[in-house]
User: Fold Beta-hexosaminidase from Dillenia turbinata.
Amino acid sequence: MLLPLSLLILSLSSLFFSTFSRPLSQGFSNSTLNLDDSLVYLWPLPSHFTFRDDTLSIDPDLSLSLAGIGGNSTILEEAFQRYLKIIFKHNSGDNLRRGLIYDISELKITVNSDNETLQLGVDESYSLSIGRIDGFSVIGKAQIEANTVYGALRGLETFSQLCSFNYESKTVEVYKAPWYIRDEPRFAYRGLLVDTSRHYLPIDVIKQIIDSMSFAKLNVLHWHIIDEESFPLEVPTYPNLWKGAYTKWERYTVEDARDVVNYAKLRGINVMPEVDVPGHAESWGYGYPDLWPSSSCREPLDVSKNFTFDVVSAILTEMRKIFPFELFHLGGDEVNTDCWISTPHVKQWLKDQNMTTKDAYQYFVLRAQEIAISKNWTPVNWEETFNTFSSHLNPLTVVHNWLGPGVCPKVVAKGFRCIYSNQGVWYLDHLDVPWERVYNAEPIEGIKDISKQELVLGGEVCMWGETADTSDIQQTIWPRAAAAAERLWSRKESTTAVNNTLVTLPRLQYFRCLLNRRGVQAAPVTNEYARSPPYGAGSCYKQ
Amino acid sequence: MLLPLSLLILSLSSLFFSTFSRPLSQGFSNSTLNLDDSLVYLWPLPSHFTFRDDTLSIDPDLSLSLAGIGGNSTILEEAFQRYLKIIFKHNSGDNLRRGLIYDISELKITVNSDNETLQLGVDESYSLSIGRIDGFSVIGKAQIEANTVYGALRGLETFSQLCSFNYESKTVEVYKAPWYIRDEPRFAYRGLLVDTSRHYLPIDVIKQIIDSMSFAKLNVLHWHIIDEESFPLEVPTYPNLWKGAYTKWERYTVEDARDVVNYAKLRGINVMPEVDVPGHAESWGYGYPDLWPSSSCREPLDVSKNFTFDVVSAILTEMRKIFPFELFHLGGDEVNTDCWISTPHVKQWLKDQNMTTKDAYQYFVLRAQEIAISKNWTPVNWEETFNTFSSHLNPLTVVHNWLGPGVCPKVVAKGFRCIYSNQGVWYLDHLDVPWERVYNAEPIEGIKDISKQELVLGGEVCMWGETADTSDIQQTIWPRAAAAAERLWSRKESTTAVNNTLVTLPRLQYFRCLLNRRGVQAAPVTNEYARSPPYGAGSCYKQ
Assistant:
């Protein structure tokens, strides 16, 4: 049972002023920095919340109490242990020995379903309440209630963001209590693309990225595993494919990929793999040169051979055993068909089939879609497929926008679902896009019909890997990915501020510093170019 | 008992050629990259080693056997668990179920002393042998023997670098076995400076840095905690001092600092704190303005007041409870004494004492030294103190070079000990210094007398924080700090190659990729400027 609605006063107004507020910062002489206490330092902002002016101390021996038919979950137990380490990062000094009495000694998590299937649209809603036992509040503990473990994970993240270490008292405190939060995401699909073909990303780094995604409540890791530069993934039935890796160490075994999927699931994050066809696939041919039209003209994949589709099918069969998510990305972008014309046997095949190169492109994409659908996948394709032959696309297709604005309106008008990644704002490798433009991008822009708006599954920021490797990927992803994450999670009304510099920037800077505290290499928010170093000495909260 | 010397053939020649070598890499079509198998991919290079041409498999259930009076150590147990996670990062798939028999199922660590005191010059030597049970070798296991747990930690690191995951067999293997390694550092002091005043570094980030230092066998974290920009450290007896922090969240409690010290100790790393006086101390006055000559002229600290030295003494008293290392850095650099002349009461005091500003600078430094020595510390000072009044410096002083080359020769000629940090090569914030210049820097350059060479304790790379915060500090430190780390650990003969591009660069690139695999944001090695992004898609091993 969720909290009674009566307790959940919609308080968007509290974003902008609060009569109960307690100063979060003291005026140190060194610093002119005083955080604006009228703001709520949660990121992304919950959909509904109220707070008052109390301060609660949190017991460093905080215990977990699990309830509901879904409460007996190792996912929750493990998440609780992770969050204990985050919340109680600082040793509380001598407080324990002083025998202090804390306001909150228990976190109760109730989960109303034991279905731990993680799929698109899984219920991520939760309610969170924190209050002391007194005349005003009768809670006396922190409580999270959710319909699924994944909602509970989102609630744990919010709880952890409410917990602040007080350096004077050396206790963890929750300010502005009691809190009543009821929260749910605006969009079901909140993605981040990583590209392990342009640069191999070690498993540890992918896990670091997954951790950081969970802090921003992103929920889909779009794993662009393979591209023309390298083929790092093991495909047991075609064991030469990963000879297209850069080196024998820059590879992912089947077990590595499963490890990533499981690690992500424990954080409520789906992994959507991509096998980009027929373009962006040159690396396939290092193991199987027959996949190239010829050794001198290597892309797109040879459309004329059944062998090509045997390999596509085998890859998807193997990947089906690894990736349980219902969405599978088949790419389909930037297909230059010149090789099909210039290679005699392909040209002859086109003639025999009475196909133009455009027909053959459509043929390839649709045949790959059929393969994916036969394996119980929902195909996702980059927008060129829609732009080129929308009337032939399988109606199940999710169209992934990237080329520019205004695509999702056309996509949903034709009844397809859409993912928004307009490169002008949500390609993270575009280093000149400031946080505010990322933040103000709106996935449903140009779509008035509510039933059509619902066809926009959400959006995704894309971290293409040409200049992003282990050394700089996190500082390129963050903090701008967080700007998109709030856009995708929070209510549209609350992300449409009159003055982002006043009401959003300080909150994003606070979140960037929170990422830093958690060991994530989030870059200064206001640098002119993404991932530039800080311009000089100073506080994290002002850079 | 260490391994019999007869087994330990000095094999520096094996650096450059090996008649027994087994290919480490296979020629994939994608890549022209084949590692030069004549090289030994250990970083830093051990002082003595031999190898042959066998390949050994390592049991994923590798067990630890501890022996010797120092073997019963939680430091070792914890380190072994850490290294298991590093060595067996990849799941071995179905191998376990296949009931494979592995060549190496036990790591035996013998530690000959139970003294776990970690001080300058602690015995870090170790021997490591790995071989199968057969006619040729009678070892049948991996064995580390060391005189202290810290030597054993160095051996564990070397062992972990010999273990490679074979993506084909999905087992961890050691190539070129059997190995016999006897190793010890060339210099006792192998440092890295981090600066938490220009940018606050969260505890998690300091721990990440400590982890990465241990991979390169660096052993001193020089913690430049405080500077003019901010004073983040808690000093219980002067509780307003850390009001000089940027914000109330950018601070270290006493417990945080102890946590750092303990974390470092578990990795064999000493923490040397710095309290830089009398310059670089403006932030002290935010809490106690009396420490400033005046509110308008704030540096150096007011030399005329006993209160100043009371505070210095109190800080050192509090820090003595936190930092057990025998070295304490008192700074002393870049002291501009103009404020002492322009502030009437200080000027009057100078006149009363019949002191010039230079006398007063000396007076301040020497008085601070006395305070440190009275607390059983060995003082370290930046070279300006030596350059200005060497004949008055306490003979215990360790002089820390930074301004340029040629300083340590003068320092040791006068009988002082020296730490080498020539800014032209070992200041990591100098982004235009390529790895090779870092590597070729030689701490004892210009010192011919061996007894004088021994006064050079070692060296330190300095990561000043003006443009290095959480987002970019690791990519600025690495890989160049590793170049210095090998210079400081390995034998001079083995780091003086005729052609670094052929024999050292591939090894450093390999180590950079090893850091990446362990989640450390080490930047491409050959970028023109440090911490630049990779110039384009490609293999870690070639960037």
Remarks:
- Residues 1-29 of chain B have pLDDT under 50 and may be disordered.
- Chain B touches chain A through 82 residues (CB under 8 Å).
- Residues 93 and 170 of chain B are 7 Å apart (CA to CA).
